[in-house]
Amino acid sequence: MTLKSFSRKGQPEIREVRGDTDICSKILNIMDKLYHIKDVHALLDAVLLQARQLTKADAGSIYLVENDVLKFSYIHNDTLFGAPGVNRYLYASHTLAVDNHSLAGYVALTGKPLIMDDVHHIPAGMPFTFNDFFDQLSGYRTQSILAVPLVTSNNKTVGVMQLINPLNDHKEPSAFTLRDQLVLSYFANNAAAAIERAMMTREIILRMIKMCEMRDPKETGVHANRVGAYAAEVYHQWSLKRGIADDDIKRTKDLLRIAAMLHDLGKVAISDLILKKPGRLDSEEFRIMQYHTIHGARLFQNQESDLDVLSAEIALNHHERWDGRGYPGKIDDIFQDQVPMGEGKKGEEIPIAGRIVALADVYDALMSRRVYKGPWSEKTTLSYINDQSGKLFDPEVVDAFLAIYDVIAAIREKYQEEGSPPCQVTSG
Fold this sequence. Notes:
Blueprint (H helix, E strand, L loop, with lengths): L2 E3 L5 H8 L2 H14 L5 H16 L1 E10 L2 E9 H4 L13 E3 L5 H8 L3 E3 L16 H6 L6 E7 L5 E10 L11 H38 L5 H21 L4 H16 L10 H4 L7 H7 L2 H7 L7 H12 L34 H15 L11 H10 L7 H9 L1 H10 L14
Antiparallel strand pairs: 1-5, 2-3, 2-7, 3-4, 5-6, 6-7
Helix pairs in contact: 1-7, 2-7, 3-7, 8-9, 8-14, 8-16, 8-17, 9-13, 12-13, 13-14
């Protein structure tokens, strides 16, 4: 077993990578595409996929720095999961300390990449250990690891990327090379800036939701994160069944996660007397509340991007029903002074994003505590969703939701309400 480390400040190594015109050109082309991705979750997927392709790695994971710890944020494993897609491990929830008691923690602490040819034979005295919990759980065997810090141009570490088991021409695990380390370090230094930008975008979105929470206590950041994640993964499953091209799936999924988080932003225009009423609304109060869909869509009046268009579409349509009994219905002009509610949209008249968020929002509301009700049990909630297939919900969307319910449950576990303790691990 050999162990090699590398300082990010080592200019000779960086120059060596930059001297390779083909690989530098390839990385620059990759980065151009990555900078168009808006959602941090989608970006981590793309970064990890490109990193694995550059090094022929079978698997990999990314940790991001949040509140001075490393938070598990993304995973790929072709042997276990096949091509990157929908799986519950994407929403595993654990953290690592930024210290020398784990591989990722050591890399984050020192700012140095690390190659290990065989993690099962670490020499005595090394300042880190390998956590084989995932291997024990899944039956996968991690052998070689290449870990690099994700460091921005202003020397801020935003995370750590670990690649696992490079495959040789016979698809057998081999060992990472020094060239793999140099290439990945150069790529990571560029990718870190894109990741930081996407994290800032996510933070801005959550601040907008926090403003809404000040008006409506139900609109919390974790609720928005859950609804966004549910919607993105249900869409992924639905679109696979529809035979939609992979690039189109990724592009829509990237936008949908963010737009779904903003579905109830229009509630900022509703009176506190209604939003904070400790009980059910009467008929007149409910009529006023229905207008949050229109207010939300109006926020995106100056549509300068696909994200604006999708956000308006979801805000307006997430309370429509498959059977045509929803609201606000068919409206010619949502910007007129007095907007009358229209005849409900029915079936595929409702955009698919609205149909998906309708289910995601109702599921999360039923499973959550409200001032006027306790959380429903999982059994009761799923029974209700099945019963409402073809009534409140699009049957195909229900089928997609149930097909990935293990992922839905993992999302609920990851984005818990404040006060729920995160899972802590001490090595990895």
